[in-house]
Amino acid sequence: VGNHMVNMATYIRDRVKKLNEEEIVAIDEWFEENAAHFNVAPEYEPLKGILAGKNLIVVHFESLESFVVDYDYEGQPVTPTILKLMENSINFHNVRDQIQEGVSSDAELMFNTGLYPAQKGSAFMSYGENAYFALPRIFQNKGYETLAIHGDMAAFWNRDIVYPNIGIDRYIDEDHFEDKRYSGLGILDESLFVQSMKEIERAKSPYYAYVMTVTSHTPFNIEEEHRYLGVPWDNHDAGYLESIHYTDHYLGAFYEELKESGELENTAIVVFGDHEGIHKYHDSNLPDNDMKLPFFIHVPGMDRIDVETLGGQVDMLPTLLYLYGIEEEL
What we know:
Blueprint: H1 2-14, H2 21-34, E1 55-61, H3 66-69, E2 72-73, E3 76-77, H4 80-86, E4 89-96, H5 103-113, H6 123-126, H7 135-141, E5 145-150, H8 159-166, E6 170-172, E7 182-183, E8 186-187, H9 189-202, E9 207-212, H10 236-261, E10 267-273, H11 278-281, E11 292-298, E12 305-307, E13 311-312, H12 316-323
Parallel strand pairs: 1-9, 1-10, 4-12, 4-13, 5-6, 5-9
Antiparallel strand pairs: 2-3, 4-11, 7-8, 10-11
Helix pairs in contact: 9-10
C-alpha cells in the first residue's frame, strides 16, 4: 500500500516533466552506440523464423531464480519439470534481473515491450495509458488471439488499463477463475494452470497466452498441504523451495495436458523468472544467485541449445521477434 501511495505521488509530480535538449541528445547517442550489439552471431543465424506461425504460451514464473533450477533437496530436484523442458529448448543461462520499483510489472513491461522500466516508481502505474510497441500487439496484427491469465485482482499494478494498450484481447483475472482457492498473494497456481488450459482451449489459433504465476511470491509461507518436497526447516528458505517446487509441479501437469490435447504440435513455450525472490526479500542460506534469472524457449522435439551470452530482460522481446522472423519496424 505504501509503495502504491509513493507511486501516485511520483506520478503527480512527474507527469508534466519533459526532457531537455541535452538529455535527448544523450539518449540518442546511447541508442546509436547500443545498436552495435544487435548483430546476430553466425551460429544462430539459422534460427531466424523457426517459430513463425506457432502459438506462443509464456509462463511468467514468479520469483524464479537461476540457482534453484540446479538445486536439489536430498536428491529431489526442486524444478524437475523445468529441467525436463530445457532438454528441448533454447536455454539462456546468463540473463540478469533488471527490474526496478515496479517489480513483477517491470518484468512484464520488459518482456512484452523491450523497454527498460522507469527509474522511479512503476511504468505500469505512471505510464499505463501509453500506447506501446509490444509483442501481443504485433501478434494481434498478425491475426493472433491474445490473452493474459493471472490469479490476482484485475486492477493490481494497473493491468486492466495497461493490457489493452499492449494488445491483450482478453484478460482473465481472479474474478473469472472457477477455482478460487487462495494462498499468499493470489489464487493457487494449480488453479491458474487449470484455468489456463480452459482458456487456451477456448482460444482461436494462432494465439498468444501470457500466464502469470503467483504462489511462489514472498513471503513464501505456502501451506503444509502444498509442501511436496518435505523440507523440514521452518524458515523462508524452506518456503521458497517448497513454493517453487509446487508451481513447477503444476507447470508439469499443465504441460502434460497440452501434450494430450495436441496443442503442443504447433506451440512454443517460454518460461522466465520475473525477478529474484529469496535473495531479493530475505536473508538466505541458499546458494548465491548473482541476479541471474532463467529464460528458455521450448519447442517439443527440438535439439537443445545452450546460450551463455550475457543478456537482460530487455533482450527477451528482440530474441523472440528474431525467432518468429518478425522485423522490428513492424
